[in-house]
TrEMBL record:
Residues 9-141, 156-298 form the EamA domain. Keywords: Membrane, Transmembrane, Transmembrane helix. This is DMT family transporter. Pfam families: EamA (PF00892). It is found in: Membrane. SUPFAM superfamilies: Multidrug resistance efflux transporter EmrE.
Length: 300
């Protein structure tokens, strides 16, 4: 298939960042009524049930998933088990806008991890782009006051989302270096996601058990919480993964990568509507710096 940005491809690529921004906003909304690890476990348990009719074949004993269990366990730790749990944990102490803006620093960590672990070359443009993106992240962390940076005190949520971003960068590099044995599973987005969910549920269950044993974990059931769980399982998980895969196949990964940076913009709009967290001037400046850095570092 020829890869180009058609209107259909653009629509497919806009859906995932909209869903992911919704995930951050909904996660912030339900933070008072459910513990973060428990929220992550329930989200992926529901996603597992949704995907089961489409991808049950990957669970069979003769599936290629089980010989690759170590790789999929690692992939799921950095994504389903770790990234999403840290994201929900971050939303307990940081705003949805801050979380997605700091998360937009992921390409910077991808450069660093690629250089250190995979010996990937880093160009001058990429270095300059990284500096711009880091500047945007520091602007968010300093809440718009550069003097705050000199005696910066991070809220726990900022630290959690930084760790999540580093983990996602490692996850992305693992995806970029697949093993030949995993190609059959990767050829179908539903089986590939299901393979990660299976092991991700194991990580999530372990983290949730620790949450209930070591912290004042809680869950206050209501129709609102049930609706939130249904949304984050169906939208940001299943639909976002499916449309992202279809969009990337049409437009190519290089073009698709820029659409991820719509997430903070959508989050700012949704946060203003549903959370009353109106974006400030420094959010806009940070967004410009982060996107400028990513665009610059990605140019040929």
């Amino acid at each position: 298939m020829t890869q180009r940005l058609t209107p259909t491809a653009a629509l497919l690529l806009v859906i995932p960042p909209l869903m992911w921004s919704g995930n951050a906003v909904v996660g912030r909304m339900v933070a008072p009524v459910i513990s973060p690890m428990t929220l992550n476990l329930l989200r992926w348990a529901i996603a597992f049930l949704i995907l089961l009719p489409l991808a049950s074949r990957v669970l069979r004993a003769n599936s290629g998933l089980w010989p690759q269990w170590k790789r999929f366990a690692l992939l799921s730790l950095f994504s389903i088990g770790g990234y999403n749990a840290l994201l929900y944990l971050a939303l307990n102490t940081s705003t949805a806008i801050n979380v997605t803006l700091v998360g937009a620093s992921t390409p910077v960590w991808m450069l660093l991890i690629g250089r250190l672990l995979f010996k990937a070359p880093v160009s001058r443009k990429q270095l300059l782009g990284a500096v711009l993106s880091i500047g945007g992240v520091l602007l968010v962390l300093g809440r718009g006051d550069w003097q705050v940076i000199t005696h910066l005190r991070l809220v726990p949520g900022d630290v959690y989302v930084l760790l999540a971003s580093i983990g996602w960068a490692a996850y992305s590099w693992l995806l970029a270096h697949p093993t030949p044995e995993s190609e059959d599973i990767r050829s179908d987005w539903s089986t590939f996601l299901m393979g990660q969910i299976v092991f991700g549920l194991g990580w999530s269950l372990a983290f949730t058990s620790g949450e209930w044993l070591l912290t004042p974990a809680h869950i206050d059931w209501s129709l609102g919480l049930a609706a939130a769980l249904a949304f984050i399982a169906l939208g940001p998980a299943v639909i976002a993964y499916g449309t992202w895969g279809a969009g990337v196949s049409r437009a190519g990964p290089a073009v698709a990568g820029f659409f991820i940076n719509l997430t903070p913009l959508f989050t700012a709009v949704l946060s203003s509507i549903f959370l009353g967290e109106a974006p400030k001037l420094y959010h806009a400046l940070a967004f410009v710096l982060i996107v400028s850095g990513i665009v610059l570092s990605s140019r040929k």
